[in-house]
């Protein structure tokens, strides 16, 4: 990990004020060049490198309040990071980075069927706690992701078609806004902020905790069907028609890749190109088996892991690798998946493709498309599928990775609905507000801009997938100050 020289930042934040801040905090403070700074700044997605003026390792909400107030008084922007899976713009020497990884507490109320999540909590810690009461959260496919940021971005999990977005089931949010004040946002209290935070993510403050619903789902019928290269075309053409008839209780996606000949890879897949069809059924296992029986019959799988599992094994359905790296990522929603779309996807990422980009297709619809009881800024997808493409940077020809992503966009333009999903817009790509705008409906985006102008007119919270306030041009969104008087000295 790189070390950064202190003299690059001396003018931004002298040690005197930082020392006084550190004395008031429970958590640590890191300055450039000091031990722990580089490690604390590192994100899961290392295509983005944070180099903030200082880092506050918040231990509880009071630390966040003091950090935001310090940033405001110092003319600094505020960036926030738990794991760095959804990292966007890098925090530079005009930023204070609040690291929430120490705020990792959670508590389950089995009678109310809710969970309270602190800002840095990971799903993998929540899942077993909830399971002890026969309950489950609406986590994503990767349990090692931060629960709060995932939920604020919408949250499309393995039970999404049955229960909708994770954001649909948030009851209460605790947040520190740009004025340094802690607030509570619910359906009844600060309802406009409650609407904006669920979908608008970190544009309106630092969320220190939230409360969300849990569901009585002790077990799932789920896992993966893995098909060899020679069967992939037949399987995908069958899948595109089969998936149009499945009930909301069944969620699915597919991804194909050349599997390495390496330890840890199942023997059936080692050194082979295979399609991974991910399936999750909420309900009796016999119903799930009946629904996916046609998939098992269309071709002989190399490996079949679909079975009745306890919810604690939900992460095995996708088996997402918990490996930090430098990634180039894109996503957009597909209006439909017809014969030509499948052929285009096979040409881009199927057997014989150059391998620079992998493509995942997730089935949407069901509860995702229906309006929730309490509206939020999250866009309801009218499209039937989501495309997610990813390439690894720094291990080969990065220009080839970028070109492959451009080809995905150009090739699949006829099926592109024009909508993106905010949680899948991670890394160095697609951080411009014009890209961010595509994650919201036109009316919702206009309302978000108005609320941003009210709660954060100086764009303090700008090191993210930014929604600039109405008084700030797109071109100057990263050069804005923090709504402090022009004659106030920068310490």
Explain the overall architecture.
The protein is α+β, with helices and mostly antiparallel strands. Helix 8 (229-242) packs antiparallel against helix 10 (339-349). It folds into three domains: 6-99, Uridine Diphospho-n-acetylenolpyruvylglucosamine Reductase, domain 2 (2-Layer Sandwich), CATH 3.30.43; 106-213, Uridine Diphospho-n-acetylenolpyruvylglucosamine Reductase, domain 3, CATH 3.30.465.10; 219-438, Vanillyl-alcohol Oxidase, Chain A, domain 3 (3-Layer(aba) Sandwich), CATH 3.40.462.20. A hairpin with a 4-residue loop joins strand 5 and strand 6. It has 13 helices and 17 strands. Strands 10, 11, 12, 13, 14, 15, 16 and 17 form an eight-stranded antiparallel sheet that branches. The chain has a five-stranded antiparallel sheet with strand order 5-6-9-7-8.
Number of E strands = 17
The average pLDDT score comes to 92
CA-CA gap between termini: 29 Å
Level of helix content?
Answer: 25-40%
N to C succession of SSEs: HEHEHEEEEHHHEEHEEHEEHEEEHEEHHH
Q: What's the CATH architecture name of the largest domain?
A: 3-Layer(aba) Sandwich
Beta-strand fraction estimate = 15-25%
Determine the CATH topology of the largest domain: Vanillyl-alcohol Oxidase, Chain A, domain 3
Net shape? globular
Number of folding domains? 3
**Number of discrete helical segments:** 13
Structural class category: alpha+beta
CATH class of the largest domain: Alpha Beta
Q: State Rg.
A: 23 Å
Largest sheet: 8 strands, antiparallel
